[in-house]
Design goal:
CATH architecture of the largest domain: 2-Layer Sandwich
Oligomer: single chain
Number of strands: 13
Strand order of the largest sheet: 12-11-7-10-9-8-13
Number of helices: 12
CATH topology of the largest domain: Dihydrodipicolinate Reductase, domain 2
Radius of gyration: 20 Å
CATH class of the largest domain: Alpha Beta
Length: 337
């Protein structure tokens, strides 16, 4: 297959290498607003380079991978749908709820498959938690704990266009909670704070956040995020049930240490980045996208799925912005159509 890739920044260059490692991909065509970067990555990987997405789509690609900066996601996805090209798009689908709703409508009206990049759906641990909950092995699940803790913050220039910590970091947790439980969120309460760099405050964001969600079946979900987890990159999900508790991300790489004497777990080494933590999942999700392009499976994560996770992030953002006390935001306040 001939696959197009737009965006060769950190995650884009990472996806480029992964795509070329797949047996299903014969040719990779790349484009980036930074022509120098695109030329460099093309030369390093032996990929083709074109000037823009219009040229790429006109060249006859079988599928498109969108890994450009967040503001470019929505217009690029519109172009791909108009061109009838199966598309993989990194999260978020768009910067705003209105744009996400619009793209969900376009997807629903089109026969073109769109696969959104929530890679935790392809992580072995998260998939096992989903299976165990579905099989009833945990009994009734009463509590979910999920966290996304980055070792260090991204560059200051990234934050103003990120959408904020709930839409950028915790949206993965919100999608993962839906994925493993099969339940929707009923209400959300959130808070956050800043103790790090000033650029978070300047962008109207927080460097650490926390959310309390209630699912429609009564399950309580505790969600946290931070840009300053100096111990390492720590992403986990714990499902606590009446019979058993199961955790994704609990292994030797756990980025914490015990305060108890004589405890040697976890031995390390810890993960430092999300690409390190989820490498097998990224390979699995792009392999799945190749199957989607060939028509061998439906999209495993649609724009409609991404919309539901984005709605939860929107509710959390509304909650913490209402002040120090905040309030519980029912999901009925956040449009879904």
């Amino acid at each position: 297959m001939r696959i197009g890739l737009v965006g060769v920044g950190r995650i884009g260059a990472f996806h480029a290498s992964t795509l070329l490692s797949l047996d299903a991909v014969d040719t990779l065509v790349i484009s980036d607003a930074d022509q120098v970067a695109a030329k460099r990555v093309a030369a390093e990987l032996g990929a083709e380079q074109v000037a823009d997405v219009d040229t790429m789509l006109a060249s006859g690609v079988d599928g498109l991978v969108i890994a450009a900066a967040t503001p470019a996601h929505a217009p690029l996805l519109r172009q791909a749908l108009a061109a009838q090209v199966p598309t993989f798009c990194e999260k978020p689908v768009a910067r705003t709820l209105d744009e996400t709703l619009e793209l969900a409508r376009l997807e629903a009206a089109s026969a073109v498959p769109v696969h959104i990049g929530f890679q935790r759906r392809f992580d072995a641990g998260y998939r096992e938690v989903r299976r165990a909950i579905g099989a009833g092995e945990l009994g009734f699940v009463h509590t979910i704990r999920a966290n996304t803790h980055d070792e260090m913050p991204p560059h200051a220039s990234y934050i103003p266009t990120s959408g904020g910590i709930f839409r950028d970091c915790n949206v993965h947790d919100f999608d993962a909670i839906r994925f493993v439980t099969g339940q929707e969120v009923e209400s959300a309460y959130a808070t956050g704070g800043n103790k790090g760099e000033r650029f978070f405050v300047d962008a109207g964001d927080v460097d650490s956040g926390a959310a309390l969600l209630r699912l429609v079946d009564g399950t309580t979900c505790l969600v946290s995020s931070t840009r300053y987890n100096g111990a390492g990159h720590d992403v986990r999900l714990e499902a606590m049930g009446s019979r058993a508790t199961l955790t994704a991300g609990l292994d030797d790489s756990l980025a914490m240490r015990s305060a108890q004497d004589g405890v040697t777990f976890p031995p390390g080494p810890v993960h430092r980045t999300f690409m390190d933590r989820f490498l097998p999942a990224y390979v699995a999700e792009l392999t799945a996208f190749a199957d989607v392009v060939r028509g061998e499976r439906p999209s495993p994560c649609t724009v409609a799925d991404a919309l539901q996770a984005f709605r939860v992030a929107e509710a959390c953002d509304r909650s913490w912005r209402e002040g120090r006390e905040g309030r519980v935001v029912p999901m009925s306040e956040v449009p879904d159509r």
